[in-house]
Structure formats: C-alpha cells, structure tokens
Design a protein that fits this description.
mainly alpha; Growth Hormone, Chain: A; 13 helices; 81% helix
Amino acid sequence: MERGFGWRAAFFVVGVPGVWLAWRVGRRPDVPRGGGETAAQRAAPRWADYRGLLTTRSYVLNCLAMTGMTFAVGGLAAWVPTYLVRVRGMGLAEANLAFGLLTLVSGLGGTVAGGWLGDRLLARFPAAYFLVSGVGLALSVPCAAAVILLGDLTGVLAAIFLAEVCIFLNTGPLNAIVANVSRPEVRATAFAANIFVIHALGDAISPAIVGFASDRVGLAAAFWIAPVALALAALFCFWGMRHFAADAARIGA
C-alpha cells in the first residue's frame, strides 16, 4: 500500500469500514431505557452515587488493573517494532508487518477467548471475570520477559504473540466488571471515568517513559517496565476477587 500509493492511502482504506459501521448503526432504532430497572434506578443520580464508585473496591481495583495493563500495552505497541529493529536486527518494514499481524490475530483470539472463558466459569466462580483476567495477566509476565531474554528471533516473535493473547484475555471480563459493580444511574460515568483513568495513567504516558528509560539504560533493559506493570495488574485482579461478590450483590440489591 505505502509503496504503491503512499502512506496516506492507508487512512482511506481503514476509514471505509468505520463509515459503513457508523451508517449501519445510525439506522438502528434507539432501545428504550429503563425497561428492566426499578423506579429508584431510573431516578436522577445523586452525588453520593458518584462518590460510591470510589468506595467500591472491586471497581477501584479493576481500574488499577486496567491501568497497569494499558500502561504495558502502550509501551509495547510504541516500541516493539523499534526493539525488533535495534535489538533483534529485523528490517523496519518487516518488523512493523510482523508485529501488526501478531497483534491482529492475538487481539481477536484473546478477546474472544477471554469473554468465553469468563462466561463459562461464572456459574462456578462468582469472581470469574477477575480470575480469568488475573490468570491471563499473570501468564503474560513470563511471556513478556521471554521477549527480552530469548536469543532466537522465532522464539521472540512467539513470546510476543503469547504475551498479547494472555493480555487480551481481560478485555471482555474487566469491562463486564465495571458494569456489574456500578449502579445503573451512574454506569455511564463509571465507564467514562474508567476509560479516562486507564488511558491518562496508562498508554498516554508509557511510551515516553519507556523512551526515557531507553535513553539511559538501553531499550532491552527499558522493556522490563512491561512485565512489572503486567504483574501489578494481575495482583490487582486477584485482590479484586475478594470484593467482587459483595460489591455486585450490593448493586443488585
């Protein structure tokens, strides 16, 4: 694409599906709100309802876990191609293509698998969403470390793929937790606050931090930031398991 039409053409290609999706969604009728809610839940939210989000431990821990995850993913997304070129000796175009394909496949597979596993385990484990996410993030730690430690390029690419699959397992479950532990009247705010926090403290700053560390200790050493952030995210998930059932029951009541 870039060689034949220039790099700007790619933006037109990826924009077409977005326009089509917007047109299709825009033609669908709005679903009436409040059909499954009580009169109290349909009432206007109070400040106490918003403050309640900060005292809901599973919500706060979920936000912290997602922040650690997005911090790691943001740093990796920005620097893995450069790492493959500088440290592993790949060509820039080859590195971008390989990382892009690995991310596409792992992102789709990991997201679907995580949602399926979380739903299947929910009947046996009330905190299954935290469990699936925590295990996935914990498994991603040695995979991310292997990207730094392995000497074989094929092994490095395989480790990147496995790390991304394990990371993306949490996409569905952790977002479901936000819905399950926030009251209907402030649920939109709960999602908005979650999105703002995880990006402002996650992938918005991690590329610069990795780059700063790379200038001082080298890119390979700077990459250890990612496994550390993923390990912290896993710990927050396991911690959240202790509080999820009580928080969800309180919201349901």
